[in-house]
């Protein structure tokens, strides 16, 4: 059977855009190298034409230069064609990448949309509004409780500014009367310093005068009742 109908050959997968672009770029680089080589030959022929005199030799050099120039023009045409192909491939590749990005974006949006719909089923706006209303009511009740706990006991709340100023004036007058009745205390007066000598019953300090002596039992005593100290003469006299 294989000999009659043959074997089905596996199809080679088509090249991708990147592979085709790389292949064309390599061909373009090869053509650029050939063009550079031909430019070098043309520069040599140009120098030879300047050095040779007009005649058969110069015409032969010009003929060779003309042939090289035709080859250069042919390679330049090929290079331009390859550049155009590369440009077209780049445009197609850019469009293909854009479509892939769009597909991924759509897939991500679809997945996010599905998740949001599932989340929206569990969250209802009416429930949120009711919850907010309940929270506001609880806050008002809490404020009322705090105000109730912070009230003062037996403190009148109907005191105005005139009552306050009258109370202060009366208080100032009362304080002035008390000060005039009591006067300055004795311990604050400058002439009322206590006499500590009288309290301790101590003798006064000597003022430089001789203390009169007295006799008792044929002994001379001073005011304190002690015998006087005998005086010695200087030099044993």
In helices, the fraction of residues equals 55-70%
* Overall geometric form: elongated
Overall pLDDT score = 75
CATH class call of the domain at 15-113? Mainly Alpha
Report on the biggest sheet: 2 strands, antiparallel
Provide the low-confidence segments as ranges: 233-237
CATH-defined fold name of the domain at 15-113: Helix Hairpins
Estimate the strand proportion: under 5%
Number of strands: 2
CATH architectural arrangement of the domain at 15-113? Orthogonal Bundle
Q: H/E element string?
A: HHHHHHEE
User: How many DSSP H or I helices?
Assistant: 6
Strand order of the largest sheet: 1-2
Instruction: Output the structural class.
Output: mainly alpha
Q: How many angstroms does the end-to-end distance come to?
A: 179 Å
Radius of gyration: 66 Å
Keywords: Coiled coil
Biased composition (Basic and acidic residues): 20-31
Organism: Mikania micrantha
Protein name: Charged multivesicular body protein 5
């Amino acid at each position: 059977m294989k000999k009659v109908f043959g074997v089905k050959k596996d199809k080679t997968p088509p090249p991708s855009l990147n592979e085709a672009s790389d292949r064309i770029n390599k061909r373009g680089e090869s053509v650029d190298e050939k063009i550079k080589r031909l430019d070098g030959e043309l520069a040599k022929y140009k120098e030879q034409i300047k050095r040779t005199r007009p005649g058969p030799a110069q015409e032969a050099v010009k003929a060779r230069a003309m042939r090289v120039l035709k080859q250069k023009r042919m390679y330049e045409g090929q290079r331009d064609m390859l550049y155009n192909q590369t440009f077209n491939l780049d445009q197609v590749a850019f469009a293909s990448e854009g479509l892939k990005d769009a597909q991924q974006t759509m897939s991500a949006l679809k997945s996010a949309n599905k998740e949001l719909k599932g989340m929206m089923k569990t969250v209802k706006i009416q429930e949120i509004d009711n919850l907010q209303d309940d929270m506001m009511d609880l806050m008002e009740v809490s404020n009322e409780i705090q105000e109730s706990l912070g009230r003062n006991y037996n403190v009148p709340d109907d005191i105005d500014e005139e009552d306050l100023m009258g109370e202060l004036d009366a208080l100032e007058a009362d304080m002035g009367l008390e000060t005039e009745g009591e006067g300055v205390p004795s311990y604050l007066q400058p002439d009322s310093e206590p006499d500590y000598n009288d309290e301790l019953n101590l003798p006064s300090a000597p003022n430089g005068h001789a203390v009169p002596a007295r006799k008792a039992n044929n002994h001379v005593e001073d005011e304190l009742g002690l015998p006087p100290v005998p005086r010695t003469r200087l030099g044993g006299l």
